[in-house]
Amino acid sequence: MRKRYAMAVDTRRCVGCNACVISCKTENALPDGGFRDWIATEVNGTFPGLSMEIRSERCNHCSVAPCVDACPTGASHVQEGGVVMVNAQKCTGCKACITSCAYGARYVHLGGYVDKCTFCLHRVNREQQPACVEVCPTRTLTFGDRNDPDSAVSRLIRSRKVKVLQPETGNQPNVFFLS
Amino acid sequence: MAILAALLGSWGRRGGFLATGKVSVAPYPLQAGFPKVRAVADRPKQGGYPVAEEVLASGLCDATRPGFAAYDMKAWIVYGTNLIQSLPAPQETVKAIQNLDFLVAIDVLPAEICGWADVVLPEATYLERDDDLATPSYKTPFVAVRQAAVEPMYDSKPGWWIAKELGHRVGLGEYFPWTDGREFVDARIRASALDGIELRRKGVLLGKRIATCEEEGAAPPISTADGRIQLHSAELAKLGFDPIPSFYPPDEGPPGHFRLLMGRAPTHTFGRTTNNRLLAQPYPENEVWINADVARALPTPVKDGDRVMLVNQDGAKAGPVRAKVTERIRGDCVYLVHGWGHTAKGLHYARGRGASTSVLTTRYKVDPIMGGTGMNVNFVRVEPAGGAA
User: Fold this and answer.
1) According to the CATH classification, is domain A5-67+121-178 in 3.30.70.20?
2) What is the ipTM of this complex?
3) Of B328, B330, B331, Cβ closest to residue A43
4) Which end of chain B has fewer CB within 10 Å, C or N?
5) Beta-carbon separation of B327 and A25 below 8 A
6) What is the mean pLDDT of residues B13-20?
């Protein structure tokens, strides 16, 4: 069966240490100020009745990806495992994809093209985990094939309370937040 | 904390205070025994704290005051700590330094204290050096070997090299008979009959998992004479202290002031990584947390992200620092992550970013029993940063 890569982010484990952010920057040699993943902290309620959720966020590699539809040159495309990628050579830096993304997952690289999370496909194809998953000290992140019902990520999505960000967009995100 | 654990019945129970174990490792087999160690130098001539072996923080500066300690301290060797930021009341630290003849700073990442040092010995980072075996207390005890992965850069040297060279230069060379850190560690591995090849390959050897709580069959860790938990301490009563802790309400701050609390962030290690360019990108500066209702009601209301100055009860100023207007703090306190507000010119990234907790900690309280330092006893007011933003 074809692979469908996905990630589960356990918000009950994440402490917001930014190790995922730093490892992504070094693994992918990102320029100063460029981020492919980031920490979001959401606080609800008023003191002292509070709840808080910390999320390690990145591109959702949506099954229905508006960024790919918006791209006039075909630079944004869907690769193996459903991973949304940008071909830097084809990208003109027009930012149509940035406008179409509901998650702010893309930025303009100093090289003049748009850059984003690749689920570290270059590592995954070598049987390695994405850099952010590899370094997470609290094992918040689980990456794998959602089409394989026995994969760790499939099991987590089945067994835990799960949400995706902005489901109302109809984008069908593939990053799942466990709570 | 221990008393609370006892009252709640969690002492020695799963989820509470546990009995942990350590892997026992043999010392380096030294031919000559160590010379007798002289009395602790920083113990005061009179007074002091009867149940404390050593007084941290304020104890160091006190001990450097002429005539205070068992013998006058003339030099500090400061190892891997930026005393200018890590001690309370930096004005006292600077005064103590004036009493010294000589100050050596050994550091991986230079900071303000290096600017006060006569000599700086730059140490290699932990990925560039062999360190001693580590055998921390844990539920599953283990022995870890810290191995150099790359060569040290510039003039930096591993800690073992610094110790050995210092030893040789003060005539104690016979206590440093090993060639390098790796040989020293290997000798300990051999003397402990550990599998050195496996340890070097994996980095860690796990010991035997031990029973850590009553549920696993371990007796609760109790060291009293009758083997029962005692909340009332006869020893403290004899010394004239409260035998069980009494509540003394904390001092209140002047009107319009907030108690200054301080803490850590998981992205940075104390103040020493705030100059790291990578870490500085997601977390470039600290913020002063202010309760949302209180921020709105200030004489000059503060919005999230505004830059403000903090001024403490003694007029010490820190900032400008961004305000984080949040529900996550009570209204009578403000909070800062420690480690910002660096002043050293060499810290190109960190210098001038955020607010220093140390500058605002002009006062501290000392626990009369243990000599422990209480630093959350300062009060600040929040002022607009004005043109400084």
Assistant:
1) yes
2) 0.90
3) B328
4) N
5) no
6) 88
